[in-house]
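Subject: Sanity check before I submit

Could someone independently write out the structure tokens for this chain? I want to compare against mine line by line before I put it in a report. The sequence has 488 residues.
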Amino acid sequence: MRVTPKIKRRIQLQNVLFILVFLGAIGSIAWLSVKYHVEVDLTANQRHTLSVASLTTLDKMNHPVSIKIFISEANMQVKRDYLALLSSYQSYKPDITVEFIDPKTEPGLAREMGIGGNGEMLLEYEGRSERVTPPLNEQNITNTFYRLVRNADRWLVFLQGHDERNFRGTADYDFANFSRLMEKKGLKVRSVNLMSAMQVPDNTSLLIIADPRNELLAGEVQAIQDFIDNHGNVLWLLEPGSLKGMEPIAEQLGIEALPGVLVDLESQQLGDPRFIVLPDYPSHAITQNFTVGTLFAAVRGLEFSGDSEWDEAIFLESLPRTWLETDESGEIRLDLGQDIVGPIAMGVSLSRMRTVLGDDDDSDLMVAEQDDLAQAAAAQEINEPDIGGLLEERRADNDQQRIVVIGDADFLSDAYLGVSGNLNLALNLVNWLVNDDALIAIPAKTTLDGSLELSRTWQFIIGISFLLVVPATFLAIGVLVWLKRRQR
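---
Independent answer below. Compare away.
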């Protein structure tokens, strides 16, 4: 066919139109990719998609979230891993901001925020903050979000009116720093005077009785007993001496406060044999994975008095070399037959199941968790009894009434809170007492087995196909195209 100038112009116009349409399509796709974000997780068990429990938790967060990651500049691969993990949260909740901070160049900021190691993360929401320590995964991050949301209406109530440790006081023996720390963690702090209120407020998450120096009235003791009978959580901090009229409470809990003060002659190098240092701890949820030493001053010994409806446990216990000094003459020496030799319980916990269900705010999270565990069962062949066990364990933790009695109040005071591991112990105590260890169980999503096993015959066929058949086919097509072009 002869190509005339008219046909040539038509072909050129068609080429121009094709290029314009092609460029327009590319531009439209680019514009749509910027304006809209679409992700599709094609993995078999949706391992790159947030769980239902995580999405339910994010739905409860109506305000922006700030995430600060303390990691050195040299750890670029770890940074990329963190961003990949957090991108799923940001795609669902765009107002999550992520900031990397090098603890080597900002040591003051890291110390101020309580960051102790490289790779730790600080999550901030509505003025509250929580640390996340490695390993960082969806379960740890979602549980931290869960605590930040859940703590919004948690009240820590200090008993006042009997010369207790003042939660706003400025003296070394007061609890101002502890109170500020609890508020920073999202808990609300207030006090109650039972001489005027006559009952502990109904919205109290934890009642703290911190070393009253004056006698409680019978009506006040009854109000505390009623609070315990109504499944309230209590932190009772004792000191050597009288129980100030609270003997009925000790009897109700099945606790006996032993006479004397705990001493350790090895602590004389610290300035006072009444200083008690604990390097390790009995197995307990409060001290789980807790390896930092703690310091106590003028400690009273405790023991369980006998049969009780509570699940009792010791989580703070003195070393075998200690004893309870009962001689008030001032001379410290071990009198066998009179003094009680260590190890001696310093902190005890009591727990029992409540007869009421948890609050409604957690019901959708429980349903979401059940969905996640069911999906994990389908993808990873988890047995149905195992799912029930995980859910039952979480419900049991969430429905427990918890009480802790410690034979010392000084370790939470402003003078000692910053010493060694006292601060971390304080956080563990409160988290356990307000049931914040009952967190969401999100099963880890692992890559399903994608291996392919082939027989020797198929290996030979595939090998020959790719080494000979495919190249020969392409060569034959090339020869045919070349021959056709020569015939023109």
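---
OP: Matches mine. For the report I'm noting this point. The longest helix spans residues 456-487.
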